[in-house]
Structure formats: C-alpha cells, structure tokens
Amino acid sequence: MTKIFFLISFSISVQIANAQNAKDFDSLVNVLTQNKSGDSSRVKTLLNIANILIYNNPDSSMKYTDEAMELSQQIKWQKGIALSFRQMGYVYYILTDKFRAMDYYLKALKAGQSINNNFFNATIYNNIANIYADLKNYKKALDYYSKYLSIAQQVKSKTDEMNAFINIGDIYTEQNSLPLGLAYFNKALLIANETGNKRIGAAILNNLGEIFIKHNNYEMALSNFEKSLSLAEETRNMNAKATALNGLGEIYLHQKKYKQAEDFSNRSLQLSKELGDISWQANALETLSKTYEEQKDFANAFYTYQQAVVLKDSTLSDKKKQDITRLEMQYNFDKKEAEINAANDKRQALAAAEINRQKILKNASLAIGFILMLVAVAGIILYKRRNDTLEKKKEAEFNTQVAYTELKALRAQMNPHFIYNSLNSINDYIDKHDTEMATLYTTKFAKLMRMILENSEQKEVRLADDLNALELYMQLESMRMQNKFSYEIKVDEDIDRENTLIPPLILQPFVENSIWHGISKKQGAGKILVSIHKEGNMINCVVEDNGIGILESSNAETEKEVLLKIVFWNENYKSKN
C-alpha cells in the first residue's frame, strides 16, 4: 500500500511569522546580516531560516541550525538549545534518518525541561509520533498524537490542531479504518481552508485522494489529486507534488490509461530523486512496475519492482528500530532518576533546616531515629529502582529475541537459488524460442515474487493466500524440472481457508527440502502431498514425499535442524478460525 504523505508543521515557538517563499528568505537573511550581535534574536532568525530551507535544501538548513546551537550554548540560552535540538531532529527526519531524528527529539525534550513549556513538549510529541507511525507502531503513535491534539486545543492553536487531525487521520487510514481517516482529514482540510494554508491543503488533498482510491471512487480521487497538484505547484510544495503525480499515475493505471500512468509515475520518480526521498521513489517504482506488468512488459516490471523493494528495505532496519526504543527507554530512565534525586535533595534540605531549627532540643534518640528513617527511605528507593531496572532489562531482551526470530523466519522464506534457477529457466525457454512457455513461466514467476514480497510485510496471512503462493512455487519447480513430480494439497473441510491466519510461507521450506533432498535425487517420478487438518484448536500441517529419504540426503542434519525449529513454532500457533 502506498504510504500516505502528510506535511509536518514545524511551528517554532518564536515571535517571527512563518516564512514560506523566497521573499521571506531574503528578508530574514538581511535581518541576519544587519544583526551582528550574538543574542537570542539572532538565534531565532537562524532557526527560521533553517525552517524555510528544510525541504528544498536540508544541508543548508542544518548549517544554520548548527550556528543557532553554537550561539545558544555561548550565551547559555537554554530555550535556544532546546529549539536547536528540535530543529536538528526535523532535518534528520526529512533526510529519512529516523534514528538520529529520534535521538535529537529526545535531547530536545531533556533540554526543554527547564523551560517548563507544555506546548514545546507537544510539538516534540507530534514528531516522535511520526517516527512510531513510520515504524508501524500505531498504538504508540496514536498516544503521542492524542497528547499533541489535546495541548493544541487547550492553547487554541488552529495550525497545530490541523496537524494533529492530519496525523491521526493518517494512522486510521494505515489501519484501514477508512471512515475515521476520512473524517479526520476533512476536519484538517476545513481548518486549512479557513486559515488559507494552501501548502498543507495540498498534502491533505493527497490523503483524501488515496482514501477515495481505496473506495474505488476514482472520479473523486482524480479531482483531489488534480487540486493538490495545482496547489503544490502554486506554493512550490515539491513533496506534495511528488505524491500527487504518483497518485494520478495510480488512477490512470486503474483506468487502463497506461501511457498517462507511465508518464505521471516517471515524473513523480524523477522529482522524488531530486528531493532525495527514498520512500516516494519506492512508491513511484511500484506504480511503474504495475503499469509495465499490465502492458505485458515483464522485464521492466520485474526490474522496477526489484528497485522498489531494495529502496523500501533500506529505509529503516530492525537494528534502528531497537536503537530508537533504547533511546526512549534511556530518556525515561534519566528523567525518573533526576526526579528521584531532586526529591532526595528537597527532603535532605528540609531535614537539615528542621535539625538546625531544633538544634537545642535535639537529643541522641531523635538523631538516631532520623538517620534510620533516611536509611529506610533510601533502601526502599534503591530496591524499587533495582526491580524496575531488572524488569526493563527482561522486557528489552524479550523484544530483541522476538525481533531476531521474526527476522530469521523472513530471511529463510525463499532460497535465492530458486530465483537464479527460475531466471535461468526463463532464459532457456527464450534461447529455444519457446515464447509460450517463456511467457507462462515469467507470468507465474512474477506473480509469485509479488505475493512473497507483499506477504513478507505481514506477520499473518490467510491460509488460502499462503496455499496459493505455495502452489505457484511447486508449479514453477515442476516446470523447471520438466514435470519430474506431481503434487496434491489436502485441507480438512472444517478449516476455513479464508478466515484462518498463519505465518507467511511457513510450509515453503519443507516443500523446498522435499524437492531438493528427496525428489531431485530420486530415479523416476516423484510426488509431494501437503495435508492440513485440525487437532483441537491447533492446525497440524504435514509435508510428505516419496523421495530418497532424509537419512540419505547429504544435508540431513541441516534439514533436521530447520524441521525441528519450524515444527515447534507451528505446534504452538493457534488457529484464528
């Protein structure tokens, strides 16, 4: 699914109007040139210039931000330090470096504690939520967006209220709660129209266009994307323009207007490359791949789809997800530790004052009792902190193990040798001028690749979809091996294929082992039987073949190891039937 783009508002809390065009930029540069004094006003000007440049020239934006940070530290202006940290987070987010973005957002929160500005914290909550949304941790994203919306409504900031509506609408859309997504985007569009904010209006119209595509209402989708493209060009919002161009490409693809679809998708791809945005390039490449596929240009379809997958995989690794979680935990721990130390300091100061006031009346028993009380309090605090630390450590270890297991399962889903062999088979058909078989094989191979790559993004898929992918895999292997084996899939009638969920491609490694270690080495024809039946509330999946047997295979130990690991997972997997 194409990720819906929403424009983030970078409303810095300074007393200078938002600048959005070259005239405002030149004006601020003149102010900066005239103001040679190193004070807070210069810091504000530097940050506003950085904010103007953030989309079209993020490197220059970071340069002005670094200068603002250096000056804030020289004059010891804590608010300027916090604002500079936040601006650095903005720049890294635009550069899709979410690890560094989260790092600087948390530094901004920590630096802003002394400011005691609730609205400043709200803007950080919004951008932390953006990162969680990108990580598809929608629950945490909604928690942070809700905090942002609540504060925006308290201070009656229409701009920030609009941004919160956009972001919450995006989350509901990603979760396929389309009516809720539509409602929140319409709330945001109403505010954008009231305030004359055409730049953000363009982004909202893109979001509405995507929802109407999901509803198959291509007429309304086309209208919204065309309006967005017009506003984006008027306001020079290149980000919204890239999204609108790809949205129009998607619509023309659905309408089978392939030349127009190819034209708009290529324009979106070129603009996304100029902006340096990897995710938008991937979206445009996906649309191009589908367009080529519909035109039977399978070579370009497969090539562009491969490019899209490589770009998507490079946006955020599992390691960075763990690092982000670790940073947030560290921030919470440091904050709690600081609160405990502050409370201890306050209690000790009050105790010292009380002791000094009653110095004459103090006696040995009171002194001993007071000391015992301090020891007890300190012991309780240390005991609680130790328990909290152990719990967090256990939770972190568990999450790491889960992520590692999921990653291993994903990496084991498809042997790269199968892909190479399939491509060699296609080449062999072409060399033999067997166009019909080459086309049939290529079509099945492309369909299987698409199913595997789409299902790999899900933790669970329907049993029917997974069996379809498995059957395609066996068809391709049978064709490649010149029909050396036949296969049969049996599913109990009391199992609902459409409403039963299983991990994607859970049976494929078993079937692959049957083909490579059993059937391929067997003299004569082979057969593979896949049977699925229920045992209580569990699903039992069995793969059988009439090959040479596991003990005669040169990879018997490896096969046995894979078998044990996957069967253990399968036996503990409950049917969602």
From TrEMBL:
Extent of the TPR repeats: 122-155, 202-235, 242-275, 282-315
Source organism per UniProt: Ginsengibacter hankyongi
Keyword entries, A-Z: Membrane, Signal, TPR repeat, Transmembrane, Transmembrane helix
Gene3D superfamilies: Histidine kinase-like ATPase, C-terminal domain, Tetratricopeptide repeat domain
Protein's recorded name: Tetratricopeptide repeat protein
Record field: transmembrane: 364-383
InterPro entries xrefs: Bact_2-comp_sensor_kinase, HATPase_C_sf, Sig_transdc_His_kin_internal, TPR-like_helical_dom_sf, TPR_rpt
Domain (Signal transduction histidine kinase internal region): residue spans on this chain: 405-485
UniProt GO molecular function: phosphorelay sensor kinase activity
GO cellular component, one term: membrane
